[in-house]
């Protein structure tokens, strides 16, 4: 299991659901990952060049928004 998978598993344990999409820019030849996590009315999204970076950013946002 990779670090981003562990992070998503921990977020799920805290009540967050998640989804991600890999976006391919054919002109630039680059990939970008759109990751979304949701819990109740809270919806956090991140668009980053790697899945791990997107998950890490969302995890930090989720932790900072914890009550």
What does this structure look like?
This protein is α+β, with helices and mostly antiparallel strands and about 70 residues long. The protein has helices at about 5-15, 50-65; strands at about 15-25, 30-40, 40-50. The chain is built from two helices and three strands. A three-stranded antiparallel β-sheet has the order 1-2-3, covered by helices on one side. A hairpin with a 2-residue loop joins strand 2 and strand 3 (about 40-50). The longest helix is centred in the last third of the chain and has 15 residues, at about 50-65. The chain is elongated and about 40 Å long. The N and C termini lie far apart (about 30 Å).
Kindly state the percentage of residues in helix: 25-40%
Distance N to C terminus: 29 Å
C-alpha Rg (nearest Å): 12 Å
Run of helices and strands: HEEEH
Poorly predicted parts: none
pLDDT averaged residue by residue: 91
Shape: elongated
What is the topology, as strand order, of the major beta sheet?
1-2-3
């Amino acid at each position: 299991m990779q670090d981003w998978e562990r992070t998503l598993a921990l977020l799920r344990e805290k009540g967050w659901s998640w989804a991600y999409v890999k976006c391919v820019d054919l002109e630039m030849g680059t990939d970008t990952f759109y990751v979304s996590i949701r819990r109740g009315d809270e919806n956090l999204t991140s668009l980053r060049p790697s899945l791990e970076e997107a998950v890490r950013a969302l995890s930090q946002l989720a932790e900072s928004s914890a009550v």
